[in-house]
Amino acid sequence: MMRIDGDGLYLVAGAALLVGAILPRLLRRYAISAPIAFVGAGLLLGLAVDRSHLSPIAEPGLTKHLAELTILIALMGVGLAIDRPIGWQRWRTTWRLLLIAMPACIAAVAGAGWLLGLAPATALLLGAVLAPTDPVLASDVQVQGPSTGEGAEPEEDDEVRFALTSEAGLNDALAFPFVYAAVFAATKGAIGDWGIEWLAWDLAGRTLIGIAVGAGAGRLLGKMAFGAPSRTFRLADSREPVLALAMTLGVYGLTQVLHGYGFLAVFVAALTLRAAERGHDFHAELHSFIEELEHILTWGILLLLGVAITGGILKPLTVTGVVIGVALVLVIRPLTAWVALQRTPLRRSERWVTAAFGVRGVGSVYYLAYAGPEFRADLPWLWATVAFTVVLSVLVHGVAATPLMRMLDLRRGGDQD
After folding, report:
1. Measured between alpha carbons, how far is 107 from 131 in angstroms, rounded to an integer?
2. Is residue 266 part of a domain?
């Protein structure tokens, strides 16, 4: 095995970025997504490098912060990409996925884990960790960017892409209360000892703080960027895309200091900024800047995941873990989302595609790194199960994304159900 020192890592990073620039174009005609290729590249890289410090179990802090930053950048990107103004009827498919499908999915995974022999707290944690769909790895089935200019028509979004994008933008934050519930169940005992506090603070209070900070910051920065009296502060005129990164980090930091949900605040802030001067082409520049950062961070996460697999992160995987992962990707998510999407504007074929594409990824990595210290006895098995599920999701959804989206486009063109 070759041991790569600090200077060698620069070589690896440069090669990875070069491959990342080429892969999306190379794979455009094939049913192989870039995430699949990067995980494969990580598997090969793991054969050549010292893997002792490239494991989420060995480096939980690094894993948590890298995944955290990747999610934050992705949330800002998807928030800026959504054209549709927020509203109860306009976002009806999203609310159903969040309020029906997501809790049902958590309950089903937790119930399956408990029936297969897991402790209740561990089963609930696994359900919560695997609950969020991913705003990072699902780019092939999401809206591609903001429509700007005089001809932009926000209401003409592809409903499938919109549903998957908006769901991924919100459920990364809304998984947090359930992760806390699992931690409390493991550390505080019976639900009667913490249930009321959890409902009032972790479910409701911290969510409201996230929404308030995100909306307030987005509105303030939107007015500054597009309508400040002084050109010095009117960043849309000076074309300063770093506003998106400053907003991401600042809003997240402020919300965390106030003990709200920072992921939620960042997404709400992006939506609010997008609503300011909706047709201005500066939104496209902001989104393009954030998208490049997202790609770089995503490539790194996937490479490290591949390295960790080569290093043996899947060794503790059991039949129970395989059953839960396969059931989630192929049965639980599709069925719960299909039920939730009844009585929505989606056609039958669109409902099936939307239900099927619950991509699991970086969000699951973050939540397990965050809560893992409270579950040390089960941690190797949990990482093995989550890594298996993420790779399975990357493979299944990565192969299926291009042909299924093409099928929907053809059906729409032929006006078929």
Report:
1. 10
2. yes
